[in-house]
């Protein structure tokens, strides 16, 4: 679109974040803040140039080598950062220059910004916002005809200029031919000893070039929020969650209380699914149609089929088949696959196991490293003993087997098809198909001996 290149300035340390993590990698809604900026421009820019500095190795590791990286080893301002990127840019075309800490700028908004720049045919266009409280931002100064005259930093603004409410967001569109000509001559700011893009505006005007502004008003102004500390990070995350949840609801998802539902960017949820409060969907989670999730459900990197019910439970890196019922208070750990119609009840933990169609693990059980067939019933308090202190072992339970309450299955072990394990058994050997197996101590009864172990309240 318009032979446009994206340039993202992402070299700053972000000292106000007070963190060892590079500022641009701080997460919100499951993604680094820089990810949102890249996603917003990826579909309509020819290439993306990323100016990196502090923590550049970690940034490269996350985003890979599809981007053009430029190192700004010494951070000397926004003008200096763009100057470092200049050799990587073509001689002609457009450059969309953004800050890496503005994750709320949407693709739709930036497309309109770029289109406005191209229609006005100016050398530069500044993305501005009209704020009720402009404190901390550079002010846009216009002439009597409403044209941009300069951008004044708050620290240098006269009292009447501080009353201006139109501010610079730090996002720009430039004509590349003009940028290649004038940016190398950008003077150093005498007060700060750095090079600022805002100082390029008067130079362009003096050279006879037009400088335009594209102003955001009302709710759109919120999109220009830059993140400098953890408070602003939380504010941006709340705005993104609101945007994510609104999009899902418009696609047919019901949320009982959207403000209490936390869904990462990229999570997919099917139509007619109902999500109750305090539900968290993270990572690469995908949920089918007609499900009921929550209250208090937490899914991470999990694929969920249609018609699943999951309440007050946690599921990590697993697959849940159609019509499965989970919870309350179940813990499904990585590597688990619950097939169609499986029931996992309260206080059950399942790890790295396959549970076949219509099988049930209703309550108070642990299943680890097991392969369970169809139609199997696990009674209350059953334990698959998969660890011998050195290695993990696999247990196989074939179709239609019945495992009685409070049974221990010591892996490695195979329970045959249709076998019946009596309640209270500890099974250490394979059980053939259709066999009954029980392993209990002999029950003895000593008449009247209970008196020796019980004391009456009146004694």
Could you explain how this protein is built, in words?
By secondary structure, this protein is α/β, with parallel strands linked by helices. It contains 8 helices and 41 strands. The longest helix has 21 residues, at 230-250. It is elongated and about 105 Å long.
Mean pLDDT: 94
- Outline the low-pLDDT stretches: none
CATH topology-level name of the largest domain: Spore Coat Polysaccharide Biosynthesis Protein SpsA, Chain A
Number of helices: 8
What proportion strand?
Answer: 25-35%
Overall shape: elongated
Helix residue percentage:
10-25%
Biggest sheet record: 9 strands, parallel
Task: Give, in spatial order, the strands making up the sheet with the most strands.
Answer: 14-17-20-23-26-29-32-35-38
Q: For this structure, what is the CATH class of the largest domain?
A: Alpha Beta
User: How many distinct folded domains?
Assistant: 2
The CATH superfamily of the largest domain is Spore Coat Polysaccharide Biosynthesis Protein SpsA, Chain A
User: How many angstroms separate the termini?
Assistant: 93 Å
Q: Determine the structural class based on helices, strands and strand pairing.
A: alpha/beta
Radius of gyration, taken over Cα atoms and rounded to an integer in Å: 31 Å
Count of distinct strands:
41
- Would you identify the CATH architecture of the largest domain? Alpha-Beta Complex
